[in-house]
Amino acid sequence: MSNLDGLQGKVAIVTGGSRGIGRAIVARLAGQGAKVAVVATSEQSAGLGVEAAQAAGGEACAYAADVRDSARAKEVVGQVVEAWGGVNILVNNAGVTRDQLLMRMSDEDIDTVIDTNLKAALSWTRAVAKPMMKARNGSVINISSIVGLVGSPGQSNYAAAKAGLFGVTRSLAAELGARGVRVNAIAPGFIQTDMTKELGEDLVKASLEKIPLNRLGDPDDIARGVAFLASDEAAYVTGTTLVIDGGMSL
Ligand code: NDP
Description:
- By secondary structure, the protein is an alpha/beta fold.
- It has 9 helices and 7 strands; from the N terminus they run βαβαβαβαβααβαααβ.
- The chain has helices spanning about 20-30, 45-55, 70-85, 105-135, 145-150, 155-175, 195, 200-210, 220-230, and strands at about 10-15, 35-40, 60-65, 90, 140-145, 180-190, 240-245.
- A 7-stranded parallel sheet has the order 3-2-1-4-5-6-7, sandwiched between helices.
- α1 (about 20-30) packs across α2 (about 45-55) and α4 runs parallel beside α6.
């Protein structure tokens, strides 16, 4: 089996698979042979991920879900298992920012960011844990951020959520390892997506100066890391964080 079909026979769920990093992950996993359930806020947006999977020569299905709704997580996982016979890969990628200085940050800014970026990872992992443990096979990948490692002014809510994911990753790796389920995190740096396109030219320029590899990241830079952690190539890797940031956090 070549690396290009290294995910043949696997079933993946990718949250936030409609745009940006999530869509690149969907395309890469599908291109390497996985069947992919694309989760996004509407069936229409999830359909964009399905189109990307098909363009990569793969198979995918769209699911509308607000990742903050844990009952819906259980429902979607049940439908995926029913349709495709199991689930091997979960990528907790859906995320939002509500940047604000702490003195001006509303309760809603705090709750939305924690619920979407952190709590949802717990409820979606809980939903897949049973079928993964039963199959003695699973790889959960939490998309965190270097902001969770180094902090960032105006992003204390986001940093809390992303740092929290490291604790979730290590705890669940220890909890689920004996049942054949691996749990890892990826910490992306500055990746060009809708989330970062609103940032001004000055900030982009200042960020570039901090990146030894001298370019902003591309969503596929992250997707390649996900494909590795999802695959049997990473069979002995769990509880770790793969930093993909061009050296920005050094
Ligand atoms: P985008 O803003 O481009 O895409 C966000 C994705 O999340 C969309 O698919 C969106 O779906 C989905 N989403 C948001 N809220 C919900 C929700 N409540 N329920 C279901 N789906 C939801 O983000 P990026 O691709 O830039 O980021 C992806 C992940 O990577 C995030 O976790 C982010 O924090 C992280 N990250 C990004 C970095 C960057 O530089 N871009 C750096 C470090 C980490 P829809 O299309 O339906 O709205």
